[in-house]
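Researcher: Quick one. two chains, 648 residues in total.
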Amino acid sequence: MEERIVVKPRKRKLSSDRLAFATMGYFFVTAFGLLCLFPFVVILMASFTSESGLMRNGYNIFIPVGTFSLEAYKLALRTPIRVFWAYRNTICATAIGTFFAVMMATMTGYVLQRKDFEHRNQFAFFFFFTTIFNGGLVPWYILCVRYLKLRNNFLALILPLMFSVWNMIIAKSYISALPFEITESAKMDGANDLSIYFRLILPLCTPLLATIGLFSALAYWNDWYTSMLFITSDELKSLQYFLQEMINNIQALKQIAARGGAVSFEGTLPQEGMKMAMTVIATGPIIFLYPFVQKYFVKGLTIGAVKG
Amino acid sequence: MENKTSTGAPVVGAPAGNGDSPKGKAGSSGLDRKNPKKGIGGRLWRNRYLYLMLLPAVVYVVIFSYIPMGGIILAFKNLNYVKGFLGSPWVGMQNFKFLFMSNKLWFLTRNTILYNLAFIAVGMFLEVGFAIIISELGRKMFKKVFQSLMFLPYFISWVVVTAIVQALFSYEFGLVNNILAAIGLNRVNIYASAGIWPYLLVMFRAWKNTGYGSVVYLATVTGIDQQMYDAASIDGASIWQRIRYITIPCLVPTMVIMFMLALGQVFRGDFGLFYQLVKDNAMILPTTDILDLFIYRALSATSNIGQASAAGFYQSVLCFITISTVNFIIRKTQPDYALY
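Model:
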């Protein structure tokens, strides 16, 4: 009720400048919003359009009458084992990686914000320095391949993304806003730091966990880079890298369509439609999940953003 | 326990309000009574769980960041896989010679900088613009729907963006090309016209990141003192005046900080964007090649590890110098926002 009373008088005197701004504002915002949405619609529609329809009419934001077809999906899933592997790898990497990423970021953040921890500033700089200077791609790559043996190793999908200094900084600032008395009184009662962190601090950090969790999960889910660098075996490739191969490599598409990859596909391959179907298959879950996590995402972004 | 914290390096990475409160000391004196052990060993033992909690991250950073930092000497070596980092022979500046002679480095550096500047300018314009518009348009429902839409591109990988590029710009079937043809213009083969790529890349980058970027500014706008707006409306200020004289000036510090932060990364390209959209398409490389792409190509396709690590060294050192300079300037002008 109160809010309405406050809002009403403002509405009544909708002056010309306000009207002009609102018109323009709604126009730009709507235009940009649609622009963000419409490529997804194009891809979705194309994936359900028959190849002949695509060839005739090109890509579109609707399915032209009489060209609806599931052919692309059928072919894309003809060798389901590749899709299954890709999904399995990405889901496992995302689940395991996100768990460790969240634990490491919050644990480190908690220690570094402890006002009674003597070397916290030195340690903080130790971590922060890695964001302003790094050895570059080559030494890192050689380390991973030659010394850590990450080539064609499932850990290659997890380790490189496991710790982010930025997440750690977000955690540090979030936890430091909690009252220090929590730690203090628990120490008085004889609790050790580990159980203070697990039993008192973590339960108070749900928004933080959601934020870092989302950032990490997104990084893992969308990761094609580590697969590109380290993985050559089909069984270990991540979903996005699998998709990348399908989109860019007709040969790879043909293998998928040719059941098991032994014989090459006969006849004209519905390339365009298949690429789009693959894209939908690889993107689908995260888009469906999106409305549910979006709330936390914006909130979490704000937590991160306030930090700068 | 001595209060060592105040003598150490300044608080890292905490622009706003992370000042030490005196509470810490009170807490530690309480601990002292319980734990009579003195000296370094005693302190280590007392904080053993804290060190234990730090351990994973410290080990991780040493392995994945500090050891590769040492590996930067590869730029002056001729890497031999069998002999490894340390055993490979020194070759002095040989790796740099070719890079500098071919003018390649200058060309790559210029591209990297120009692209980043374009990203910064376009990105900031859109992000600030949308943040202001969203904050001024009242309807909550509308705001929510719009923000959901705006974040959608941020959720997908650059690989999916490649599929989008194909759907929109494929020469024969792409939606944009079909529209061009329908209104009587010529179709554009984007993979044969290098000149169009700077626009495309800036566009897709803005498309993907505006939603994310605008949140920072939106948070700042939300924090502006409402009384200023009330006072302005009593004085009969128009909405343009509100924005021009209240919102934008309040946003300037954030804009400066974001600009400086982005400037610190000006020698580092967005590898995902460039790699996925450009790949190794030789036709368009003249306008799209950046340092990161070159380093990756030198490492993977040509296995020219010497040149790759020389270019990597060059990039890392330039990055370090710019970030340090930028941070120095911020610390002099806006100490609250200094990175370190």
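Residues 95-337 of chain B form a domain with the MetI-like fold fold (CATH 1.10.3720.10).
Researcher: Thanks, that's what I needed.
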